[in-house]
C-alpha cells in the first residue's frame, strides 16, 4: 500500500513540475523529461531529521520539516518537491523561496510556509500540512524519492508545541531514535531546533551521556584494562569520616569517559576481604584524556555514589578495583594505611609507562606531608625541612 501511494504522489508531483513521462506513471520504462529542474540529488542524500507537526494554536505558517544533507556535496533546493497531508488529499509543493539556493554537505534546512527572512537555513513552501496524529512526508527530486518519514504508528506523535526530532548521532547498526524536542520553547511557545543540530533524546540513566559542548547524547567511551592508575588517596579526613570529604586521584593512561565506572574497595590486599562499592554517575559526559590527572569524590571531584565511606586500611593495606558498566575489570591499586588528615600518594609518578603496575605495590606509596593531601598534583609533597640554626 505504501509503495502504490508513493508512486501516485510521484505522478502528481511530476505533473506539477512540468515533466512528461513516457510511456506513463507507474511503469518501469526510463522517463523522458521535457523540463529539467535544478535538483539532481538521489535517494538517501537527504534525511528528514525534525518536524513540528502540532504547533501551539493555529498550525498555518508554524509547521516545519527539517532535512539534513548527508551526501558529500551540496543539494540544490530548486526542483525539490514536498508531499504532505493525508493520503486522500496530499499537498504537493515546490520550494519557492530561500536565502541560499542549496544545502551544503553536512548542512540542514527547514521547510515551512513562512518566508525565509534572511535565515540561510530556512526555505519556503507554498503549502505544508502535517497531520497531528499520523502521516507521511516525502521529498522528491523530479521522479526520485529522496527522503520520506512516517509518524503515528512506529513513531508516536509528540505533544502539542513540541517538534518530533531524530537522535542527532544514532549508534552504528541501530535504528535512529525519535523523541519530542528537548529545546527551550521559542517566543511562540514551541520547542524545536529548526536548521540546527538536535539536542538529543533522553535516555535511561547511565546508558548514554550528554556532550557538554554540543548538548547531544552519546555512548560513553569505555576504558579498558590498565587505562588508569591510582596516584593518591585521601580516605581519613580529620574528625568523622564522610564520603563527601573523601577522594582519590587517578591518572588517565588513555582517552575515555568516567561515566559508569564502578569502584570496589576491599579492606585488605585482596578480594577475600570485606568490601564497599562506589560508582561514578553523571548525565554529562565526563571525558578524560591521556595524561590527565582526575579527582574522584570530595568537594571538587567527579561525584561518587556509595552507601558508606572508604576504608582507612587500618590493617596495613587495602585494594581498589575499577570496573566498567559490564563488570570488566579496568584497574586495581593496593595502598597502605591512610593517616588521619593526610593522604598517601604513589612515589615517583613521573614514569607513567610503569605506573599501572606500581600502584599495586603498597610499598611504593608514601605519606603526603601536609594536611588535606595534594589533589590534582602528581608526586607533590608538602614535606619541608627545618631551617638550620
The dominant shape is elongated
**SSE series:** HEEEEEEEEEEEEEEEEEEEEEEEEEHE
Low-confidence runs (pLDDT<50, min 5 residues)? Answer: 1-10, 12-36, 384-389
Number of helices: 2
Query: What is the fourth-level CATH superfamily of the largest domain?
Result: Lamin Tail domain
Helix content: under 10%
- Total beta-strand segments: 26
Q: What's the level 1 CATH class of the largest domain? A: Mainly Beta
From the 3D structure, determine the CATH topology of the largest domain: Immunoglobulin-like
| Main β-sheet description | 10 strands, mixed
CATH architecture of the largest domain: Sandwich
What can you tell me about this protein's structure?
The chain has two domains: about 200 residues, Lamin Tail domain (Immunoglobulin-like, Sandwich), CATH 2.60.40.1260; about 140 residues, Immunoglobulin-like, CATH 2.60.40. Helices cover about 5% and strands about 30% of the residues. The protein is elongated, with a radius of gyration of 30 Å. With about 400 residues, it is mainly β.
Amino acid at each position: 500500500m505504501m509503495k502504490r501511494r508513493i508512486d501516485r504522489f510521484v505522478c502528481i508531483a511530476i505533473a506539477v513540475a512540468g515533466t512528461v513521462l513516457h510511456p506513463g506513471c507507474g511503469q518501469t520504462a526510463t522517463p523522458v523529461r521535457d523540463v529539467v529542474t535544478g535538483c539532481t540529488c538521489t535517494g538517501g542524500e537527504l534525511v528528514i531529521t525534525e518536524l513540528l507537526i502540532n504547533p501551539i494554536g493555529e498550525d498555518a505558517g508554524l509547521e516545519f520539516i527539517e532535512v539534513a544533507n548527508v551526501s558529500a556535496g551540496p543539494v540544490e533546493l530548486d526542483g525539490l518537491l514536498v508531499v504532505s497531508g493525508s493520503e486522500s488529499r496530499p499537498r504537493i509543493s515546490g520550494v519557492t523561496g530561500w536565502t541560499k539556493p542549496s544545502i551544503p554537505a553536512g548542512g540542514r534546512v527547514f521547510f515551512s510556509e513562512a518566508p525565509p527572512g534572511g535565515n540561510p537555513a530556512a526555505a519556503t513552501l507554498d503549502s505544508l500540512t502535517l497531520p497531528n496524529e499520523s502521516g507521511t512526508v516525502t521529498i522528491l527530486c523530479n521522479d526520485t524519492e529522496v527522503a520520506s518519514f512516517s509518524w503515528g504508528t512506529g513513531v508516536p506523535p509528540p505533544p502539542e508545541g513540541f517538534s518530533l526530532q531524530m537522535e542527532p548521532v544514532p549508534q552504528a547498526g541501530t535504528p535512529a531514535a525519535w523523541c519530542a524536542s528537548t529545546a527551550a520553547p521559542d517566543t511562540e511557545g514551541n520547542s524545536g531546533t529548526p536548521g540546527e543540530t538536535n539536542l538529543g533524546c533522553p535516555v535511561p540513566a547511565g546508558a548514554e551521556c550528554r556532550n557538554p559542548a554540543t548538548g547531544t547524547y552519546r555512548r560513553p567511551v569505555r576504558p579498558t584494562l590498565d587505562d588508569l592508575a591510582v596516584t593518591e588517596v585521601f580516605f581519613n579526613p580529620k574528625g568523622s569520616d564522610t564520603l563527601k570529604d573523601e577522594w582519590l586521584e587517578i591518572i588517565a593512561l588513555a582517552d575515555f569517559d568516567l561515566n559508569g565506572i564502578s569502584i570496589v574497595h576491599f579492606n585488605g590486599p585482596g578480594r577475600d576481604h570485606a568490601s564497599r562499592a562506589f560508582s561514578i554517575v553523571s548525565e554529562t559526559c565526563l571525558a578524560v584524556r591521556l595524561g590527565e590527572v582526575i579527582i574522584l569524590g570530595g568537594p571538587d571531584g567527579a561525584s561518587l555514589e556509595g552507601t558508606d565511606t572508604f576504608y582507612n586500611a587500618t590493617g596495613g593495606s587495602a585494594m581498589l578495583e575499577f570496573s566498567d558498566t559490564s563488570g570488566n575489570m579496568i584497574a586495581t591499586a593496593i595502598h597502605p594505611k591512610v593517616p588521619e588528615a593526610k593522604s598517601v600518594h604513589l612515589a615517583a609518578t613521573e614514569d607513567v609507562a610503569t605506573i599501572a603496575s606500581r600502584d599495586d605495590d603498597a610499598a611504593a606509596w608514601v605519606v603526603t606531608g601536609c594536611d588535606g593531601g595534594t589533589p590534582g598534583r602528581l608526586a607533590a609533597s608538602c614535606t619541608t625541612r627545618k631551617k638550620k640554626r
